[in-house]
Write a structure and sequence with these properties.
heterodimer; A: 111 residues; mainly beta; 11 strands; 56% strand; B: mainly beta
């Protein structure tokens, strides 16, 4: 089993839709969870960060961690065409030295 | 957040040759990371580069194939040696960045898109 699993999509939604992006992970010891957004021909940029369980909200974005299920989610409300990108979940490894990434989900928001 | 300049942004290379990718950061950082992003795959860590010591390579990556230099706290290079078409990928430089001081964050360069023919 891979350490982080993410459905690559692609995912296509109309403008204004609520988007749910998800990852599962295998190691219950992981504590730091991140979501990165990557536009075409650009490097990933940090979108959201969560420590341990719970929710974190930033504008239209909500990151959620369910440690009991080893499941992390990113919700995008009122999605916009500018949200069209690849979203990567990332988890800090146990040593705290580097990130383990999911494959990324490609999202397309149509106007 | 740190700003990373990565060069070249793209290149097309002949098999059997080598390419050196440069990563320049606008602030001093302890750890620099090199990742590979193959089509349809996760970003995979190649190695961690600390200034003044040998790079630490992840399983499946070796120094002979991916030699790394880290001459100071703002600069690193990754060389892809004796290239084959399987090395066609995006190579990304990253640094640990704590913009808020209270949590981990990792900033990435824009990447080098390498095509080996």
């Amino acid at each position: 089993q891979k350490e982080v699993e993410q459905d690559p999509g692609p995912l296509s939604v109309p403008e204004g839709a609520i988007v749910s992006l998800n990852c599962t992970y295998s190691n219950s010891a992981f504590q730091y969870f991140m979501w990165y957004r990557q536009y075409s021909r650009k490097g990933p940029e940090l979108l959201m960060y969560t420590y341990s369980s719970g929710n974190k909200e930033d504008g239209r974005f909500t990151a959620q961690v369910d440690k009991s299920s080893k499941y992390i989610s990113l919700f995008i409300r009122d999605s916009q065409p500018s949200d069209s990108a690849t979203y990567l979940c990332a988890i800090l490894n146990q040593a705290g030295t580097a990130l383990i990434f999911g494959k990324g989900t490609t999202l397309s928001v149509s106007s | 957040s740190a700003v990373i300049s990565q060069k070249p942004s793209r290149d097309i290379c002949q098999r059997g040759t080598s390419l050196t990718i440069q990563c320049q950061v606008d602030s001093q950082v302890t750890m620099m990371f090199w990742y590979r992003q193959q089509p349809g795959q996760s970003l995979t860590l190649i190695a961690t580069a600390n200034q003044g010591s040998e790079a630490t390579y992840e399983s499946g990556f070796v120094i002979d194939k991916f030699p790394i230099s880290r001459p100071n706290l703002t600069f690193s290079t990754l060389t892809v040696s004796n290239m084959s078409p399987e090395d066609s990928s995006i190579y990304l430089c990253s640094v640990e960045d704590k913009p808020s001081g209270d949590h981990y964050g990792y900033t990435f360069g824009s990447g080098t898109r390498l095509t080996v023919v």
